[in-house]
Amino acid sequence: SPHGAPRCPMALTPPAQRRALLATAQHSILTGLHLPERPRAPRPPPRAALLSALRRVQPQLNRGVAPPRPPNTAGQNYEVLSFAEAGPSTPRSSRLLFRFSQELRENSEVLQAQLHVFWPPPGPGSSQPVAVRLLHGDAASNGTALSEAMLEVRGEGWNALDVSDALRSVLSRGTERLTVELNASRPPLPTYGWDDRRPFVAVRARIGTPPSRRRR
Amino acid sequence: GIDCSGSTRTCCRKEFFVDFKEIGWEDWIIQPEGYHMNYCAGLCPPHVAAVPGVAASFHTAVLNLIKANNADAAADSCCVPTQRRPLSLLYYDRDSNIVKTDIPDMIVDACGCT
Hints:
A: alpha+beta, B: three-stranded antiparallel sheet, two-stranded antiparallel ribbon, 7 strands, 39% strand
């Protein structure tokens, strides 16, 4: 402000004020999201897949209850849903590719990550174990697994597997890509398309405390 | 805090809504449809300026006396947000993942004089 004028800001003409407020709003949102610019041309998953995933991770939506209002806390938490892209597959083995954001790797600490896979009805009265290998990046076919687990599939429905350590390991190695390999004991494996049964990883993360900074 | 009306000249909260369609952001922000940013505007005369949220007391009386006798201190009083709340966003990131987060202190709920 000019010399001698009051020191409080905001003395613009209405149109300039509106432009300034819109620019401030955009800047505040991008800064709050730790984004250098707005994401361009997103490729949204199908609505059915999105609704199915949201109902799976927020069961209160099924009851028509609004999610609780966020508490006014100092920290900032993120919840991320990453949908699988189909990778190479055989009747016995199927690969799912996940790509997470650079911001998740650089600015965040992963609190929890869960893989959700829908399984079609097995044979009558039977269950089957499915071997799950978690691989680094767009892994080659003989890539070393970050971890391996068994998923006991009983009947039709969603199954969840904790992949927190594998995702932390992937992000700490400087990449945002995770490959999940499913190996069925009784083929064929289900095929996943662009429907409401598309596999996804649900991540809870916290901004501002990446592991390296915490150690220091 | 008070909301601004046509006749209000003292410090108040002005409502300001940013429609995401207006700025071309509706393609990546899923929810909500806009941002109730709001802001503070108006004058803070010396008798209004106080520590926001502190009820009338011996201390506020002393502060008002100091301000009344000190023009410089009164000139420094600004109309600022005294209460804010987070903005919840559901959006697509650049890899088309769906992200939900609450950005703290984004919505101005009340204004007051410093």
